[in-house]
Design a protein that fits this description.
Number of domains: 2
Bound molecules: glyoxylic acid, manganese (II) ion
Oligomer: single chain
Number of strands: 17
CATH class of the largest domain: Alpha Beta
Largest sheet: 9 strands, mixed
Structural class: alpha+beta
Radius of gyration: 23 Å
CATH architecture of the largest domain: 3-Layer(aba) Sandwich
Shape: globular
Number of helices: 11
Order of helices and strands: EEHHEEEHEHHEHEEEHEEEHEEHEHEH
Distance between the termini: 16 Å
Length: 440
């Protein structure tokens, strides 16, 4: 048993043939091709490529839909069955099309949409490494006991609402809310999906039958600095943060920015700014060391320099792997917003936008990843995921887990997001070993 030590070589998994080989003990070799994986990652990176590097490929946009067509072509060229469900999730499978409870699949995957000005690996790695593993298995003529499938989940980045495709697949989509789901720029999900040839009202039909997925494992870049700084090549994710987002709207009074005395202003923006700074301190102080917060969207109205801002809107996000801590932070931040508003003589409204629950990874999947690392002679460590992932939805319906590889400089959600190609090859090798163990 062994995996080649250098990712520039092919990565091998040795195993025994499945039962039914007439008592003969045969050994077969399954190898992923890091060169083929790299070529596909570079090809996918061309859809929505930015002149200075990185990509902008939001779900349902023309570059995303072109990438979807390309991915379907790659899946078919690899002799896999490929299809798209009503939520826009793309699947490739070693077995017949469709996922049924009669023959549960071992599923891997991630997403091909990106944040604006994002990198080439967030999501793409997990989808294309999954495709590589399935192709390698087919080339080796391996027949694991359970069929395997790879998914590209739609709108993981949540332009219209977080983790859309995997929410639909796991029956967690709030059907009533579909008509009002919209991007920060106001574009409605129903319109974006219609433009891409989908009917948003049919998305709930993507729900998989109970028992259709035997296990789920997703390969992803860490997107933070922990693995690189510790010099550890593989992270075994033990939990995934929950993310809460709320729109916080401070309403003051428009006034002349030159003539209104400073002490008479009711400035919506200054209230929002004070809230953002104090909320940051609150989350650092009360978040148990693993909670974070961000204000990534700010709108000031009317938004001209000679009018005191009448209104400021923030999208305030908080994350924690601990559900109670997260709920406590949300309550404290809401009272903070009210105190700040009162002191500054403005109104405030806190409108919850979305909340995903933290998820625990399955011991069986973590053990399979660790066994694959041990076989490969790779050190690993358990860690929580500070980013949200489709795996947290899958964890509600099956045993789910994630494999992390180091991110260069801990950088992600920026155009220079990258991991070493050797690390990518190692991650794909560990994914293959894990899939084989789960499908055995
Ligand atoms: C997904 O990228 C997230 O925002 O965590
Ligand atoms: Mn992301
Ligand atoms: Mn991602």
């Amino acid at each position: 048993m062994g995996i080649a030590p250098k990712a520039t070589e092919r990565w091998f998994i040795l195993g025994t043939a499945p039962p039914g080989s007439q008592g003969l003990y045969c050994r077969f070799v399954i190898a992923i091709s890091p060169a083929r994986l790299r070529a596909r990652l570079e090809a996918l990176a061309r859809f929505g490529a930015l002149p200075g590097g990185g990509v902008t490929r939001p779900c349902w946009s023309p570059p995303h839909e072109a990438a979807r067509a390309w991915l379907l072509g790659e899946l078919r060229a690899a002799s896999l069955q490929a299809w798209v469900d009503p939520a826009g999730n793309v699947f490739g499978a070693t077995g017949p099309p469709g996922l049924g409870a009669d023959r549960p699949v071992v599923l891997t995957g991630s997403h091909i949409d990106t944040v604006p000005e994002g990198g080439i690996l967030d999501g793409a790695l997990g989808v294309l490494a999954g495709l590589e593993c399935l192709e390698a298995l087919r080339e080796a003529g391996a027949a694991p006991r359970l069929p395997l499938a790879v998914a590209a989940w739609s709108d993981e980045e949540g332009r219209y609402g977080s983790l859309f495709g995997s929410r639909a697949f796991t029956g967690r989509l709030d059907v009533e809310r579909i008509p009002e789901m919209a991007a920060a720029d106001g574009e409605r999900l129903v319109d974006a999906m219609a433009r891409a040839g989908f009917d948003a009202r049919r998305a709930p039909e993507a729900r998989a039958p109970a028992g259709a997925v035997a296990a789920y494992v997703e390969l992803h870049i860490e997107q933070g600095p922990r693995l690189e700084e510790a010099g550890i090549p593989i992270g075994v994710v033990d939990s995934i943060v929950g993310v809460r987002r709320a729109r916080v709207v401070f309403t003051g009074q428009a006034d002349h920015a030159g003539t209104t005395p400073m002490d008479r202003r009711r400035d919506g923006f200054l209230a929002a700014a004070e809230y953002a700074l104090r909320a940051r301190d609150l989350v650092v102080r009360r978040g148990g060391g693993r909670s974070v917060t961000n204000v990534g969207v700010v709108h000031v109205h009317p938004g001209v320099s000679n009018i005191v801002p009448a209104r400021a809107e923030l999208v305030h996000e908080m994350r924690s792997p601990d559900a109670d801590v997260l709920a406590g932070l949300a309550a404290r931040c809401e009272s903070l917003a009210r105190r700040v508003a009162r002191r500054r003589g403005v109104g405030v409204e806190v409108q919850p936008m979305s909340a995903t629950a933290p998820a625990a990874c399955a011991p069986r999947v973590m053990a399979a990843i660790e066994a694959a690392c041990a076989t490969a002679g790779l050190a690993s460590t358990r860690l929580h995921s500070a980013a949200g992932h489709d795996a947290q939805n899958l964890a509600a319906v099956t045993d789910a887990g994630m494999i992390f590889i180091p991110s260069r400089g801990g950088r992600s959600h920026r155009v220079d997001e990258m991991s070493d190609w050797e690390a990518i090859g190692r991650g794909a090798g560990v994914l293959l070993g894990t899939l084989l163990a789960l499908a055995r």
